[in-house]
């Protein structure tokens, strides 16, 4: 376990560890023992402190090293799903390759495999049908596009001076 950074109180150190659970400052503050009423303000204050930012960064790095789950690795997996070419699961005769011969990008992109036995009228197995389901390519492409800044999920409001003036006049009329 990572040692507490010097200069942090026990509560601040607990906040840093709790913050890594869900990256929600308010919830981390509550779990660290700050009051329900002040948790949001405390989180804002704590997250603005350089010592807290350094500790969170160090804890995150330690976790990545321990788990080997890094941002690069996650993005690589998203890329495999988003850009998978299912043709690579087949040989030159269009027969499905054995699982052990699948390229890594095919294996990473598959969410499930079903093998159904085909039987004749007497119940004898005469073959099998293989169904391969891939992870959601559209969702993976959306994640990759968002990461690359290709999607703008923010709403921009353009308030003209005219509208702002009208709102100000309306406030005056109601005594504000």
Q: Could you characterize the architecture of this molecule?
A:
α1 crosses α2, α1 (10-22) packs across α4 (50-67) and α2 packs across α3. The protein is mostly helical and 176 residues long. Strands 1-2 form a two-stranded antiparallel ribbon. It starts with 9 loop residues before the first helix and ends with a helix. β1 (110-119) and β2 (125-134) form a beta hairpin. The model has no long low-confidence stretch (mean pLDDT 89). The chain is 51% helix and 11% strand. The protein is extended, with a radius of gyration of 27 Å.
- Biggest sheet layout: 2 strands, antiparallel
Mean pLDDT: 89
Shape, per Cα inertia axes: extended
The radius of gyration is 27 Å
The low-confidence runs, each spanning 5 or more residues with pLDDT under 50, are: none
Helix content: 40-55%
Number of helices: 8
Distance between the termini: 56 Å
Strand order of the largest sheet: 1-2
Q: Which series of helices and strands comes N to C?
A: HHHHHHEEHH
How many extended strands?
A: 2
> Structural class given helices, strands, pairing?
mainly alpha
Residue share in β-strands: 5-15%
